[in-house]
Amino acid sequence: MADIALKINGRQVTVPEGYTILEAAETVGIEIPRLCYLKDVHKFGSCRVCNVEVKGAKALQPACMVAAANGMEVFTNSPRARRARKVMVELLLSDHNCDCLHCERSLRCELQELARQVGVTEARFEGEQNFGGIDVSESITRDMTKCVLCRRCVSACGNIQEVGILSASNRGFTTEISPAAGLPIGSTNCTFCGQCTVVCPVGALKETSHRERVWKALANPDKYVVVQPAPAVRSSIGECFGMEPGEAFTGKLAAALRRLGFDKVFDTNWAADLTIMEEGTEFLTRVREHLTGGKSVLPMMTSCSPGWIKYIENHYPDELDHLSTCKSPHMMFGAVIKSYYAKKISKKPEDMFVVSIMPCTAKKTEIARHEMKNDGYPNVDAVLTVRELADMIRDAGIDFTALPDEQFDDPLGLSTGAADIFGITGGVMGAALRTVYEIITGRELPFPNLHVSPIVGLDRIKEAFIKLDNVRPEWAAAEGLEIRVAVTSGLAGAKQLMEQIKAGTSAYHFIEVMGCPGGCITGGGQPRSKDVTETRKLRMKALYKEDEGKKLRKSHENPDIIAFYKEWGEINGHASHEYLHTHYVPRGIYNELTDETFTVRR
Amino acid sequence: MSETRQECRFCAGGCGEQAKYAELDTVIESYKDREGCLIMVLHAAQEIFGYLPIELQTYIADKLMIPLSEVYGVVSFYSFFSMKECGKHTLRVCLGTACYVRGGMRLIEHIKEKLNVEVGGTTADKTFTFEVARCIGACGLAPAIMIDDEVYKHVTPKYLDEILAGY
Amino acid sequence: MVKKISSLADLELIAKEYGERMSAYEHQILVCAGAGCISCGCGAVRDTVRSTLSELGLDNKAIVKETGCMGTCAVGPVMLLLPERIFYVGLTPENIPSLLKAHFVDGKVVEERTFFDPIQKKYIPGMDDIPFYKEQVRIVLRNCGIVEYGQIESYIADGGGYRAAHKALTSMTPGEVVGEVKASGLRGRGGGGFPTGQKWEAGLNAAGDRKYLVCNADEGDPGAFMDRSVIEGDPHNVIEGMIIGGYAIGATRGFVYIRAEYPIAVERLSAAIAEARDYGLLGDNLFGTDFSFDLEIRIGAGAFVCGEETALMASIEGQRGEPRQKPPFPFQAGLFGKPTIINNVETYANIPSIIDGGAAKFASIGTEKAKGTKVFALAGNIITSGIVEVPIGTKMEDIIYKIGGGILNGKKFKAAQVGGPSGGCITSDNVDVPMDYETLIARSAMMGSGGLIVMDEDTCMVDTARFFLDFVQDESCGKCTACRLGTKRMLEILQRITRGKGRMDDLDTLMELAETVRDSAMCGLGQTSPNPVLSTLRFFREEYEAHVIDKKCPAGVCVHLLSYSINPEKCKGCSACARACPVEAIVGELKKPYVIDRTICVKCGNCMTVCKFGAIVKE
Q1: What confidence score (pLDDT) does residue C439 get?
Q2: C52 CA to chain B: closest CA distance, Å?
Q3: How far away is chain A from the Cα of B167, in angstroms, using its nearest Cα?
């Protein structure tokens, strides 16, 4: 492509064709103030903050939308551009709940930062304010007094996830962003993936906080409080403390959790290995049945991602038997802790309080589901997002960066490399194949460094075909079988694969679905980023590094897991079915098949 | 979404809406292959049903396979679409200062009681949609009411009964 | 099933047969069925004309035809008698029988039912002698009031219809059609004034397997009804213009986007499209050529912003009518992402004349930079309001005084709002402004779609600015910050000022907001929304200051700034005012001067109306 030469603030700039003015300016170190634009997520041009003066153009031009052109002369700081920019920010503030001290986004709010940047020092445009209400669901809290109508969330929900819960309604001054008819979000077919909360520039969309719930449990001497962080948490927690993305801080994470006062610091990774044993075995059973003429349902689909579960329940209620019956790893973990482990330490289930640190907002809804209980107690009692955990660490006065590296507690703290990659798209499948292939053939999965390369990476849909030959005698029926697997992340991809299944044309045996694009590394509970694509790649790198750094890389080699099953009983056995497996609820697209909603009544 | 489920949801109690839905289905069918037909379908639906309650929007969203929030976003954007059922006539009581001091509120109370309708609502027989107006510029005629474009002056509860009887 | 038209001979045959059918009658009675006349009950008038004719035994002598708008909406319902071209106005079912009897049986022109010219102060029976018509040049409206809108034969016979489409499709290449339109100098009549030929050329050159042609009939400006008159009065003219446009750019499908508030236009255009389809003038292989073209109507749903082309496309696509940033322009990526050319009704209505009569003839009318005519909707405090068409460059004063008959009630001209809510006002110093795109912009107004609202000395310009801003604020789509919040805050300031709560810094803030919104908004509507504020602030700043500093409304319009009192010198103590007062704010003793308690007064003005002695003072 031809290069474009233009002038920005008098400086000659050369950029490839297709660059916007905003991108061109960034190449020479000029960051034009902006609000609604978010790289790779939202390009809408509605906030009018990034408006710049272009010589010859009648009106100011939004730098995020307008392509750089040959001979263009751009002025980003002319009096006209600066005045307009400031007035736009002042106008936005005039319709914003400016009670910043009581906002959790204070000091990390893009609007607040912008106001400081353009020099707002007084409220000049007082007038009527179009404030919506506050809507609290199990996972997501919408504070519509804060919304600035940038519509990043609408893009995330509608264009990226293709779920379309949030949309602009009404018009003009009364425009608001809401689910249809202003319904509480918890009553809709929202999957609670939380991608909207990651992109919101202000305090309008956020996770429903469990911080106080956890502090209270920690302070309760009658509670034995156990914590477990998900695989992806270690890849991103450092970012909350000013560290560059791309490095896992597993040791500091364990140390921080211990200093917060948890009685035991375990690791969801252990349960990820457990999941592979349960889910891998389930898959093998389905394949065996399939090969011997049984009626098993294939493709089997993974069930680790509660956003995805809610999605399939809402949109494909007739296809639920494709889902693995395995609970997600942290739920399995909670079930094990309140039964097996509680007994071990002579505690009653009701004395146990399980906290999950998750890269996810849907997990908050997941723990509230009726099915996620055993012996009358919820498997997990609280879910903290990575953002909430970071706030708690700060609240406790812990200097995260100065912490030493520590280990997770035994016996539920040890994990293999297979568990680490659970946080990345393709990782659950990769981990499952490492075990399943070995069970069937007795040999190690034939991929360099155990990475199933066709399903590594960030494409929407990836697939791999793995031939089984020279199988073990008990798997003779599988001799020559080509296992076809598909992997997708993000619900738009899930929709694509589900349509194939619905039409009966799906060619796969096993499908991994993660509800968020890229998987848990960029889940709805992860730290916010200005460049989500780059961040995603770096977090992915960090987790693969964790995997490669482990001596044990296959779940079935985890000695703690092997020891656990000696006491627990058979894989997929009776105890497993009672505690580690679940069932799903056909909900229909508007939840009309169930009375269960996830709206918190206050 | 199966067909029967839809019908159950909207026709609970065996209401006579089935014919209307059948008519709407015909319209949707005729537009199905045309790009961007949502607004035309909404026009037709409003023509058939008189208004666009959320249940009807849900039905249309399902049929056209568009997220409900998008349908609602469109309906709430355009002033021509109404989500509230409107009566055959719009009955407005003026509550400008002059009408207020001359007994406008008394008329409001009277209407509420007589027609069993709240402000902003529509009577059960769908004859009147009841609204309150800011000054209609008939201060000399206070208290005044408007039914559609017709202004009635010096209205008393008794006179009001006579007026309403004419509709 | 009618015979499909596939050649010029087919057209001529239809014209001939229709002509023969009409010549069987001695008289034709053209009853205006424009929107204005319909609301004045022209349907009943038409029925009475028909029944009276049969009562008089004139069924075989005179035929009644229903035409589109004749323009003089202020005096409707109206009718034109042919061949004598006598124009009757102010018709009612009651006055028809005697009028027809006098005219046809007694052979007398009923003068008092003809047009009264306020300047010459006399009745003018002959349509062609009426200044309102005499001063106009009709290209777009040439068939309005002449052809039967519901009869394609009438358009073909009386209007010379579909000859231009035939000529373009059978003897010109698309490039030649574009060339002809370019040579005509026609510019978009929807507001911007972009050269139509240039736009079409871009459409023709745009790469794409599928292109669309769109007609913008979402005429939303308050007080404007030019496009409505054209569609209702001469729908085939628009269809023909679109066929030619489709051929020129290579589009096989067209959309007409009409606002839902125009049900009659929708009905008549739908009927005309169906008629054209029946005759083979829409559909496959028009006039036996390879060119196929068909039209679909899409109805708006009550959003002013959909007049903006990108919002209009979003609306056709079934979405919220929100504009998007340009570029890309519609000719690059328009409807459904395909190259799209959008013109408004009036622009298309010019096309058949240009192709038929040639570019040179068209270009002989108008100014150097803008050719042809412009249709204006004349409204406000003017004697003959209605629809007029004049050469571009005609002086505003000629339109107001020669055609419109001047200001109502002998009041003084104060200003005229040109270009609708997005336009600006022209003051009395500038009333000689030639009405063309550039000059109007230079005088802080704009051509817009052609609304021309005349305001007399009793108009408050601050209130006028508030009115227009109230409109655009209410119609803002809400997408961009500048328009959504900028217009809201400006309106709040104006409301404050008109309520006597204005502060001196409000004027600076208002100016800053107005300029910033103009600079920053996403679409043309947003960018022009502050125009009424900017132009009134520029020309009538002293009125603003009177509101803010003196808390007075010089024109006596802003109710909050008015106060009523009784001049004791003039008051006879008759008590009429006290009895008329709805809130008992007036007290006094009979035969002694009464007094108004301003703390109770609601400023309804009843007292002033009833006082026979001119004792009530409003200030």
Answers
A1: 92
A2: 32
A3: 33
CA distance C540 to C445: 14
- From the CA of A159, how many Å to the nearest CA of chain B? 12
Tokens for C229, please give them: 């008159």
Q: CB count, 10 Å around CB of B19?
A: 9
Cα Rg, chain A, nearest whole Å: 25
pLDDT tens profile C419-467: 888 888 999 999 999 999 999 988 888 888 888 989 999 999 999 999 8
State the DSSP H helix or E strand holding residue C565, giving kind and residue range, or none if neither: strand C564-566
CATH architecture of C373-459: Roll (3.10)
Residue labelled with tokens 């035929």: C63
Q: Where are the beta strands (DSSP E) in A468-543?
A: 482-489, 510-514
Of A66, A125, A170, the CB nearest to C489: A125
Q: pLDDT at residue C375 above 90?
A: yes
CB C459 within 8 A of CB C549: no
Q: Enumerate the domain spans of chain C.
A: 18-134, 152-363, 373-459, 462-550, 563-618
Mean pLDDT for the stretch of residues A475-488: 95
* CB-CB neighbours of C205 under 10 Å: 13
> Which of C516, C523, C525 lies closest to A80, judged by CA?
C516
Q: Is there a contact between C78 and C32 (Cβ–Cβ < 8 Å)?
A: yes
Nearest residue in A to B82, CA atom: A170
Cα(C81)–Cα(C30) distance, rounded to whole angstroms? 6
The DSSP-derived string for A94-105 is HTS---GGG-TT
Coil, helix or strand at residue C513: helix
SS3 C2: coil
C302 pLDDT more than 70: yes
pLDDT at A90 over 60: yes
Q: Which of C449, C207, C246, C218 is nearest to C341 (CA)?
A: C246
- Quick check: bond before C339 cis, omega within 30? no
By three-state DSSP, how is residue A137 classified? strand
Return all residues near A83 (Cβ < 8 A) that are at least 6 apart.
Answer: C512, C516
Give me the architecture of the B89-165 domain, per CATH: 3-Layer(aba) Sandwich (3.40)
DSSP result, A184-244: -GGGTT-----HHHHH-SSTTEEEPP-HHHHHHHHH-TT-EEEEEE-TTHHHHGGGGGTPP
The DSSP symbol for A588 reads -
Two structure tokens written together for A598 = 């996830």
pLDDT over threshold 80, residue B136: no
Chains touching chain A at 3 or more Cβ pairs under 8 angstroms?
B, C
Report the pLDDT value the prediction gives residue B12, as an integer from 0 to 100: 43
| B73 interfaces chain C, CB cutoff of 8 Å | yes
CA distance A250 to A258: 12
What band does B8 get if pLDDT is binned at 50, 70 and 90? very low
Q: CATH for C152-363, among 3.30.2350.10, 3.40.50.150, 3.40.50.11540, 3.40.50.1820?
A: 3.40.50.11540
Give the burial string for C566-604 (b: 16+ CB within 10 Å, else e): beeeebebbbbbbebbbbebbebeeeeebebeeeebbbb
Task: Assess if CATH 3.40.50.300 describes domain A3-118.
Answer: no
Using the predicted structure, report yes or no on whether residue B15 has a pLDDT greater than 60: no
Query: pLDDT band at C222, cuts 50/70/90?
Result: confident
Instruction: Please state which CATH class domain A211-269+331-402 belongs to.
Output: alpha beta
Other CB atoms within a 10 A radius of the CB of residue B137 amount to 15
**Catalytic residue set of A:** 279, 282, 304, 324, 363, 366, 371, 520
Q: Tens digits of per-residue pLDDT, C229-252?
A: 999 999 999 999 999 999 999 999
Q: What is the pLDDT of residue A601?
A: 61
